[in-house]
């Protein structure tokens, strides 16, 4: 298995990403190769400092350009053909030949990653549009939310496919038995929601292969009602960022209040608060897969740390071993999803 990582992508790149890659070397199997994409001098220097110079399981694909987080995806891909994102995604395409990689991972510009992945890797058979599936930790267990940024203006059939693909991912990788799939809306009543939501709702109701439970509101994501939540990319991204900010703010507030009220109590509760935070920390889940891509593409959080990279590599290996893409193709291989929008 060949695993490629964009060393230059992310808020803390290249240092944090490179450190994470090198920290992950011990978890590689004998038949695994880690392909580091980015500035060759930076990568070699880091390998030497880590005592991994000329490691037999590490390859380097040198690049000379970097796509910044704030750049427009399409313009950036055209103007920076030797960027780490473009070269990375090309490695995940079937045309890469001997350099082909089974997995590509980046914490870089999400829009550029999605666009480059679709250009180089294309889509799995039957998939209309790929979607990003993120795992959100909650008190009742993990919840898979799809899409969180790849497709902000989807059609009902796109969301229908996300339901099937995300259910496969939740079952195979997260370990959720018979995932309860729900559609995010502004109320639980069938009269609520816009045209997109209502039409998707009907498709899912008529789909006997999905364990569909109906609408959920934003707060239901955290109360255990559903284990897979489907929405369009714009709303999904807002929900994700809001949840991250709220969680971080609450933990800081709780820690501050305890310390101010009773310093001795803060010493006692400190380990408990840290343990709770760890269980709700997105770094522990690594990357979010681009479901539907004809390959395995994991997109990490822009502020990923070295431990995020290790978790992403571990998750990617599991993704391949569980043959998730093959199972997605099987899940979409019937006549209950209209196939007239293949390029839509």
From TrEMBL:
Repeat as UniProt keyword: no
The species this protein was found in: Mucisphaera calidilacus
Keywords attached to this entry: Acyltransferase, Cytoplasm, Lipid biosynthesis, Lipid metabolism, Phospholipid biosynthesis, Phospholipid metabolism, Transferase
InterPro entries membership: FA_synthesis, Phospholipid_synth_PlsX-like
Catalysed conversion reaction: a fatty acyl-[ACP] + phosphate = an acyl phosphate + holo-[ACP]
EC number of the protein: 2.3.1.274
Description of how the protein assembles with itself and partners: Homodimer. Probably interacts with PlsY.
Predominant location category: cytoplasm
Record function comment: Catalyzes the reversible formation of acyl-phosphate (acyl-PO(4)) from acyl-[acyl-carrier-protein] (acyl-ACP). This enzyme utilizes acyl-ACP as fatty acyl donor, but not acyl-CoA.
Designated name of the protein: Phosphate acyltransferase
Originating gene: plsX
Family: Belongs to the PlsX family.
């Amino acid at each position: 298995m060949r695993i490629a990582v964009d060393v230059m992508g992310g808020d803390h790149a290249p240092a944090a990403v490179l450190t994470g890659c090198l920290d992950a070397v011990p978890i590689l199997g004998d038949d695994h190769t880690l392909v580091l994409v980015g500035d060759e001098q930076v990568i070699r220097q880091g390998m030497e400092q880590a005592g991994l110079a000329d490691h037999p399981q590490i390859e380097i694909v040198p690049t000379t350009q970097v796509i910044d987080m704030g750049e427009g995806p399409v313009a950036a891909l055209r103007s920076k053909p030797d960027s780490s994102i473009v070269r990375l995604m090309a490695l995940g395409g079937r045309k890469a030949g001997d350099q082909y990689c089974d997995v590509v991972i980046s914490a870089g510009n999400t829009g550029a990653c999605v666009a480059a992945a679709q250009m180089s890797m294309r889509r799995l058979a039957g998939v209309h549009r790929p979607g990003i599936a993120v795992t959100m930790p909650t008190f009742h267990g993990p919840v898979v939310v799809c899409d969180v940024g790849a497709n902000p203006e989807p059609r009902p059939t796109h969301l229908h496919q996300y339901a099937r693909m995300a259910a496969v991912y939740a079952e195979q990788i997260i370990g959720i038995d018979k995932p309860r799939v729900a559609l995010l809306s502004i109320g639980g009543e069938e009269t609520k929601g816009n045209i997109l939501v209502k039409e998707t709702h009907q498709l899912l109701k008529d789909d006997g292969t999905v364990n569909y439970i109906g609408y959920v509101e934003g707060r239901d994501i955290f109360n255990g009602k559903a284990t897979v939540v489907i929405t369009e990319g714009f709303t999904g991204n807002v929900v994700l960022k809001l949840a991250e900010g709220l969680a971080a703010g609450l933990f800081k507030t709780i820690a501050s209040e305890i310390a101010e009220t009773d310093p001795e109590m803060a010493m006692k509760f400190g380990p408990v608060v840290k343990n709770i935070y760890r269980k709700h920390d997105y770094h522990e889940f690594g990357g979010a897969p681009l479901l539907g891509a004809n390959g395995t593409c994991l997109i990490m959080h822009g502020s990923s740390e070295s431990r995020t990279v290790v978790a992403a590599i571990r998750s990617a290996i599991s993704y391949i071993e569980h043959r998730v893409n093959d199972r997605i193709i099987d899940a979409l291989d019937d006549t209950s999803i209209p196939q007239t929008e293949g390029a839509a």
